[in-house]
Amino acid sequence: MKTVLRRRHPYSIVIGILCMAVVLIVPTAGCGLTEFEVTFSSTAGGSVTSPGEGTFYYQFDEEVSLVATPESGYRFVSWGGGAAPIADVTSASTTITSVQGNYEIRANFELAGPAQYTLTISSTAGGSVTSPGEGTFTSEQGTVVDLTASPAAGYRFVNWTGNVGTVANSSAASTTITMNGNYSITANFEAIPADQYSLTISSTAGGSVTTPGEGTFARDQGAQVSLVATAATGYRFVDWTGNVGTIANANAASTTITMNGNYSITANFEAEPEDGVNFPDANLEATIRTAIGKPTGPIFPSDLEALIGLDARGKNIENLTGLEYCINLEVLFLVDNQISNLSPLAGLSKLERLFLGSNQISDISPLAGLTNLTELGLWHNQITTVTHLKDLTKLSRLMLRGNQISDISPLVQNAGLGTGDYVDLRDNPLSSASINTYIPQLQGRGVEVDF
User: Fold this and answer.
1) Separation CA 69–CA 74 (nearest Å)
2) How far apart are the first and last CA of the chain?
3) Is 80 exposed, middle or buried (0-12, 13-18, 19+ CB in 10 A)?
C-alpha cells in the first residue's frame, strides 16, 4: 500500500493570503475562489512522477500535467479511477485539461511482453522464398526464423540482401534470421549459364550436409563435387537418395557426385539404436566383443567408433550386418569365412586395407566408393566383373586370384594403377583381349601383373 500524502497547492496558499488581504482592505468584496482535491496513485510496476503521488489541491479550471513512469520490465497501460477530463488516457505523458471537482486518478501498469518485430521478405525473378513465404511477418524479439529460397528451373540462388546482419549465412539458400529488429530482406536469383548445372542438396532430420552445404549450387558440366554428410549426436548417416546415378558411393557419408545434369539429392539420417547395435551373426558379435573388450551388455555405436582394425579371419562368419557402425575402421581381415553380401561395408570410407579372400562373394559393387583402399584382397571368390574397381585409384596391391574374371579392361581404366603396383590375376578365365591387350597396357605403366 502506497502512503497517500495530502499537499496543498502552493498557488492556493498565495491566493488565500490575497483573499484575506482583500477582506481586510475591502470587507464587502469577498473572494469567491473554489479549491479541489486530486489524489494520484499507481499500480505495481511504475509510479506517477509528475506531479507525484498523494493528494494535491487545485483551483477550478486549472490544467495539470501528468507523467507516469514504468519500472524496468513493465509498461504503462492507462490512466483510470475517476471522471477527470484527461486529454489522452492511454498516454503516459498527458494533462488534466480542466479541474472541475475532486478526483482520484490511478496510473495503471502491466508486465511488458517481448517486443514484436516485422520481417518483410521478397525475391527477384528466378525463384521464390518458400519458407516462411513472401510478404510481411510478425515475430517476437529473439525468434529464430527459418528461411528457404527455392530457385526456378534454370536459375540458382545467389544470396540474401537487405537487413542481413542476423542472417546466419547470407550465401545459403536455407538459413535462419534472428529477429532483433524490424527487417526487410530479399532472396536473389540468377540464370544458370548454359554450360553449368544445378545441384540441390537437402537432408533429413538428424544431420546436415556440411560440404558443400545445403541449398542449390551451380557447377560446371563434368565437375566432380565433394559431398560430406555429418550426423548429429545420436544419429547416423544412412545414404544419399534422389539423382544418385553419378554419386561414387551413395552409401558413404563422404563421397562425390559428377555433374552431368541438374541434380537434386538428399542426405538421409536415422536415430542410433537405443538398445544397441544388432549383430545377427553370433560369430561376428563374439569377434567384435573380444576386439572392444565388452563381453556382455549392449554394444552401442560409440563402442564401435574406437575400432581402427579388426581381425576376423576364419570365424565362420556369414552376415556382416552391424559392421556398418564401425565407421573408423582402417584395416579389416575377413579371410576364410562364408560371406556373400558386402553391403554393410559400403559406408566404411576410411578403410585402407581390406582382405576378403576365400569367401562366397560375387558382387563387389558395395566396394565402389571405398576410395581410400590401398590393398584389396579378393582371392578365391566367385567374382566375374571388376567394373566397380575402376575408381579405386589409391590401390597399390590387388589380389584377384581364383575368381571367374574374363574382362580386366576396368583395371586399365583405373588411372591410379602404375609403377610399383601389383595385380594378381592367376587362375581366372581371362579373355584373349585381357591377355594380349589389357595386361600389356598395365605392364607398360609399370604395374606388376601375375596371370
Assistant:
1) 9
2) 103
3) middle
Opening angle at CA 51, ends 48 and 55, nearest 5: 90
Please work out, in degrees rounded to the nearest 5, the angle formed at the alpha carbon of residue 235 by the alpha carbons of 232 and 238. 110
User: Of 403, 400, 436, nearest to 417 (Cα)?
Assistant: 400
* Peptide bond between residue 212 and the one before it cis (omega within 30 degrees of 0): yes
Count of residues making up the chain:
451
Across 254-287, b (16+ Cβ under 10 Å) vs e yields bbbbbbeebbebbbbbeebeeeebebebebbbeb
Q: What angle do CA 266, 272, 273 make, to 5 degrees?
A: 135
* pLDDT recorded at residue 33: 60
The answer to whether the CB of 355 falls within 8 A of the CB of 332 is yes
pLDDT tens for each residue of 292-345: 999 999 998 889 988 999 999 999 999 999 999 999 999 999 999 999 999 999
- Residue 139 phi, psi (nearest 5): -140, 155
pLDDT for 6 beyond 70: no
Cis ω for the linkage preceding 85 (within 30 of 0): no
Domains of the chain: 10-111 (no CATH), 116-191 (no CATH), 196-271 (no CATH), 282-450 (3.80.10.10)
Residue 30 burial (CB < 10 Å; 0-12/13-18/19+)?
A: exposed
pLDDT tens per residue across span 170-202: 988 989 999 999 999 999 999 888 888 989 999
Distances (CA, A) of 281 to 288, 300, 307, 320, 351: 11, 16, 18, 7, 22
Q: Provide the pLDDT for residue 5.
A: 45
Cell numbers 581381415 label which residue? 333
The rounded distance, in Å, linking the Cα atoms of 381 and 389 is 16
According to DSSP, residue 298 is labeled P
Closest CA to 255 of 380, 372, 154, 336: 372
Q: What share of the chain has pLDDT > 70, as a percent?
A: 92
247 pLDDT tier (thresholds 50, 70, 90): very high
Could you read off the pLDDT of 61-109 as tens digits, one per residue? 999 999 999 998 898 999 997 678 999 999 999 999 999 999 999 999 9
Quickly state the pLDDT bin for 30 (edges 50, 70, 90): very low
